[in-house]
From TrEMBL:
Organism lineage: Bacteria, Pseudomonadati, Pseudomonadota, Alphaproteobacteria, Hyphomicrobiales
Location relative to the cell: Cell membrane
Membrane topology according to the record: Multi-pass membrane protein
Pfam families: Na_Pi_cotrans, PhoU
Membrane recorded as keyword: yes
Primary localization class, coarse: membrane
Keywords of the record: Cell membrane, Membrane, Transmembrane, Transmembrane helix
Residue spans crossing the bilayer: 50-75, 137-155, 175-199, 211-230, 250-271, 283-300
All residue ranges annotated as the PhoU domain in the record: 347-428
Keyword Transmembrane helix: yes
Protein name: Na/Pi cotransporter family protein
Amino acid sequence: MHLMYILLQLAGAIMLLLWAVRMVRTGVERAHGVLLREALRGATKGRVRAAAAGTVLAVMLQSATAVAVLAAGFAATGVMSVSGGLAVMLGADVGSALVVQALSFDLSWLVPLLLFAGATMFLKVEARIVKQTGRTLLGIAFILISLRMVGEATAPMRHSALLPMAVDYLRSDPVTAFGAAALFTWLVHSSVASVLLFMSMAAQGVLPAEVALPMILGVNLGAGLVAVGLTRGQAIEARRIPLGNLIFRATAAVVILLGLQVATLPMAWFGETAARQVVNMHLGFNVTLLVACLPFTAVMEKLARLILPDAPAGEEAFDLMSRRKSALDRTVIKMPSVALASATREVLRMAETVEIMLRPVMELFESGDKARVGQLRRLDEEVNRAHTDIKLYIAEVNRGTMSQDEARRGIELTDLAINLEHAGDIIAKNLLVLAEEKNDKRLSFSREGWSELTALHDRVLANMQIAMNVLVSGDLEAARQLVVEKERMRRLERDSHERHLKRLQSGTPQSIETSDIHLEAVRALKEFNSLLVSVAYPILTQSGDLLESRLAKTA
């Protein structure tokens, strides 16, 4: 019974640790997501700069995997090369190890302060950045609490009769220790959580450093597998980055593991205590990997292209959506609640198609790739077909007996389909036309103008993710955030317009040549964003958070 209690306490501590790490990442992404993506976009020139950007981003997000997903997204749209993405990943792994270093110190005295400040900011302040900063502080506090819980749970294990046997077995079989740690990291999807767990066990004398060494190597292999798994459904260009990173990590980990069979690594090199040795071994591995592999990112890109060759013409990843079977199930027409769920899935599919169209727009402003423009326009035809199908499907459902809530939901889904169809037209008939015009006339944006456009595009992409989450979850907080983003987008458009006029007054040649294209692109992105916000209105109206009119009442 006592053993069961210990295991239950340990399991609870591990789950709290995983949730807290995710909470920190979510808070940072919601507060600074656009800035993070813009920083990563700006780090595409030079391997050292890319690695430094990856390190900073991983420290902020407390996750190298999150950086991998961001880099893969940029690679899919052509903004970032595979070799540049690999440099970012190598730096991100160092950043993740630095996070472990910071959390490995005794910061228990900070917990009450973090809980008070974080809860106050999250519960009492409506401003998004302050609120999400509060979420981040709460997450850090919960990480520290979970580590204390791990220590309390593992302390009695030092007196267990089974522990010496288990440790002796792992000491004599480092391959098993290596594999078990890789599997655990893959299951929990967090190298930060894995290393912190092993550090806590080492601090209690449960896990000797010489046994932890192969486990740390396994953690790094497992972390590489996580990124590969999360990007397996993306475009081939996106999948090459985590694949190359996995090859780097697996090769280094296996080579060191084999080397440990013939030579003993002095543990004293890594610190005085077992806990300090665990976190220092993790950091040492990733710093060594960065230094050794950074010069060979271009070579790894070629290898990744051999393993994952380009798809045949017409088989690009963003065309897969057009071949997906419709989610509209005509066999449930007579069951309104089920039929509306089917229509919701089709609207979500429609939104995903529009997102696929939006992602490469900035890259097309630079390249003017006519073949890819044609493929995006074919996706717009698919969006138009989905819009028509959804309207007719819901109209047929309406002919049956429906409750008032079901009828309202049907109207909401129809309106969403109309707005998404309009959003697709903005891309196909506005933004792509402007991209073609810019490249046909061989024009170039000013550096400031291009920076403004890419920042707006990144913000709209981030809001697209929020809109799809609101569509699926109906989350009230996310709906509020989406409406706040509409006002912020209006301010950004106004600021961009004013800065553009100042560049015209100063006689900047690129601004004069691309003036109409710049202003129309900004207007199109703002209009696209406004259409996304419509998904939040029904939720906010129902909760009483949205007034029917913005006009002040007259006496």
